[in-house]
Write a structure and sequence with these properties.
single chain, OB fold (Dihydrolipoamide Acetyltransferase, E2P), 4 domains, 5-stranded mixed barrel, 10 helices, 20% helix
Length: 472
C-alpha cells in the first residue's frame, strides 16, 4: 500500500470534502464496506462519517476493527484509520481523536504556548494556544472543517523528516498538516497519525499482538490482576498471566499498599474495553480457582498485563514455570523500580506490600519453644509482616510454593522454614532470592499439602520469626 495517494485522486477527494454538506448518504450505509488493502471493514455511524467527510484522502484505510476503548477516561466505540481515530460519542456523534496532541507527547515534545501577539500578514492567530496558522495551511484548515475537524494549532510551522524526507509541517490538536510541493506548490496532505500513534504505542513494549485471537468485552474489573470478560455470550473470570498486583479485595487479607490504586488503574485501562485474549501453552489453561489464564491485548496494540507492570501498578509474577513474555515483563519491572514508578516510589510503597506494618513479634526458635511445636501451630491471618519475603501462591495439587522477595535487598533462605499447618510438615525451600525475584519451589515426591481440606501455610525465617502467612 503506497504512502501517498496519486495527485488526481487527491484533488477529486478534496473536492468531495469541500462539498461534504451536499453529499448524499450511500444507499447501503448500514452495511459493511471492506478494504482488502488492510482487511478491515467500516460500518454504521463511522462509515457514514468516513464517506461524508472525505473518505480515503482524509482518513486513509481502516487499520483496526471498530471496538470499545478507553479514551480520556471514557469508554467509547472507536476505530483507527491511517490518518485518524474516529470515536462515537455517547450522544451518537462521531468525532476525531486528539492524535496531534498524543503524537507530540510520544515524540517527547508536548505542545507549548506560542508567542501570541498580532497576526502576521496572511495568518490567523489563536489566542487559546498562542500559535498562528498561515498561507496554505490556513486555507486548508478553513476549507476542510476548521476547529471541529482539526482543533487548535499546537505548534507553528517547522521542518520535520517524514519517511526520510524533510517537509514543512504544523501540528493541530487532531491532525498534522504537511506541505508537499512535489505534488503542487500549495498542496497540503494530512499526516498518517493514526498509524504512527499505534506503532509508537506498540514499540514502547516491543510486543506484537498475534493475529486471530478471540475477542471479548470486559464487564467487571475485580481487582488489579483479575477481570470478568464476556466471550461468545458467556462471562469468564480471567486472571492476567505474569503479573501480581497488591491485594485489595481478598477478605482474608488486609488491603495492601497501592492495592486500591492498582485496581483503579486496571479499571481505567480495561473497564468496558474490547480485549483480545491470548493463552500460553507454557501455563495451565485455568488456575486452581477455575479462572482462565490469559494475556489481554487492547485494540490499540498494547497488552494490559505489560502496561500494569511498566506503569508501576503490578509486580512481575512467575508461577511454577517461565511464561512466554517473562523477559519483557521482568525488564518492565526493572525499569519501573529504577524510575520509582507507582508502587516502587519512596513516597508510596517502595516496592513493599505493607511498608508501614509493625515489626513482627519474635517467636521462639523452630522445633522446641513453647507454642510452636514444629509447624503444628496456625498463627492465623493479620500477624505476619509479609516482608521481606511473601508467600505468593501455594499450589496444593502441584505441590509447589511460590515466594517473592518484596524488599530491595537479596534474602538468603538458608535455615528458613515453609510450613504446611494441616499436616505439620515442612516444604523444602532454599537459596538466595534477588530483590523483587519470584521463585516457585517444588515439593518432594511425597505429599505435603492437603488437597481436600483447608491447609494454611506459614513462612518463618532462620530465627524462627513469622514472616508470611497463606490463609488458603
Amino acid at each position: 500500500m503506497s504512502r501517498r495517494l496519486a495527485p488526481v485522486l487527491l484533488v477529486v477527494a478534496l473536492t468531495i470534502l469541500g462539498a461534504a454538506s451536499c453529499t448524499v448518504a450511500h444507499s447501503a450505509q448500514r452495511g459493511e464496506r471492506c478494504f482488502p488493502e488492510t482487511g478491515f471493514c467500516i460500518t454504521g455511524p463511522i462509515r457514514t462519517y468516513w464517506e461524508r467527510n472525505g473518505g480515503l484522502a482524509v482518513f486513509g484505510f481502516p487499520i483496526t476493527a471498530q471496538a470499545q476503548e478507553r479514551v480520556e477516561g471514557r469508554s467509547l466505540q472507536v476505530q483507527w484509520f491511517e490518518r485518524d481515530r474516529l470515536e462515537i460519542q455517547p450522544d451518537g456523534r462521531v468525532t476525531a481523536g486528539r492524535l496531534g496532541a498524543e503524537r507530540l507527547e510520544q515524540l517527547g515534545t508536548p505542545w507549548q504556548p506560542g508567542p501570541g501577539g498580532a497576526a502576521r500578514p496572511g495568518c490567523a492567530v489563536f489566542p487559546e494556544t498562542g500559535h498562528q496558522v498561515c498561507g496554505a495551511f490556513l486555507r486548508f484548515w478553513r476549507a476542510n472543517g476548521g476547529l471541529e475537524r482539526f482543533g487548535l494549532p499546537l505548534t507553528g510551522e517547522f521542518t520535520a523528516e517524514v519517511e526520510g524526507r524533510p517537509f514543512t509541517v504544523q501540528y493541530f490538536e487532531r491532525r498534522r498538516f504537511e506541505l508537499h510541493p512535489e505534488i503542487g506548490p500549495n498542496t497540503v496532505l494530512l499526516g498518517l497519525l493514526g498509524r504512527e500513534v499505534l506503532q509508537a504505542r506498540g514499540a514502547t513494549s516491543g510486543l506484537t499482538r498475534p493475529e486471530g485471537l478471540p475477542a471479548g468485552q470486559v464487564v467487571n474489573v475485580v481487582d488489579g490482576d483479575t477481570v470478568d470478560v464476556r466471550i461468545n455470550g458467556q462471562v469468564e473470570r480471567v486472571r492476567l498471566i505474569g503479573i501480581d498486583t497488591p491485594e485489595s479485595v481478598d477478605p482474608r487479607q488486609q488491603v495492601e499498599c497501592f492495592g486500591r490504586e492498582a485496581a483503579a488503574r486496571a479499571s481505567e485501562l480495561l473497564a468496558g474495553q474490547t480485549v483480545f485474549l491470548e493463552a500460553d501453552s507454557s501455563q495451565a489453561d485455568r488456575d486452581r480457582f477455575g479462572r482462565l489464564l490469559r494475556y489481554l491485548w487492547l485494540p490499540d496494540g498494547r497488552m494490559a498485563n505489560y502496561e500494569l507492570i511498566d506503569q508501576g501498578y503490578a509486580f512481575e509474577y512467575t508461577f511454577a514455570a517461565p511464561y512466554r513474555y517473562q523477559a519483557p515483563f521482568k525488564a518492565a519491572e526493572a525499569r519501573a523500580r529504577a524510575e520509582g514508578r507507582g508502587l516502587w516510589s519512596l513516597a508510596t510503597c517502595n516496592g513493599q506490600r505493607n511498608p508501614e506494618a509493625p515489626p513482627a513479634p519474635t517467636n521462639p526458635p523452630l522445633g522446641g519453644g513453647p507454642g510452636f511445636r514444629s509447624c503444628a501451630d496456625d498463627p492465623g491471618p493479620g500477624v505476619a509482616p509479609e516482608t521481606p519475603v511473601r508467600i505468593i501462591a501455594i499450589d496444593k495439587r502441584a505441590e509447589t510454593v511460590t515466594l517473592r522477595n518484596v524488599s530491595d535487598t537479596a534474602v538468603d533462605l538458608t535455615g528458613w522454614r515453609m510450613c504446611s499447618i494441616k499436616g505439620g510438615q515442612e516444604h523444602p525451600i532454599g537459596g538466595v532470592l534477588a530483590p523483587g525475584e519470584t521463585r516457585a519451589f517444588p515439593g518432594p515426591e511425597a505429599n505435603i499439602w492437603n488437597n481436600s481440606e483447608r491447609d494454611p501455610g506459614a513462612l518463618y525465617d532462620a530465627q524462627g520469626r513469622l514472616v508470611s502467612y497463606w490463609g488458603d
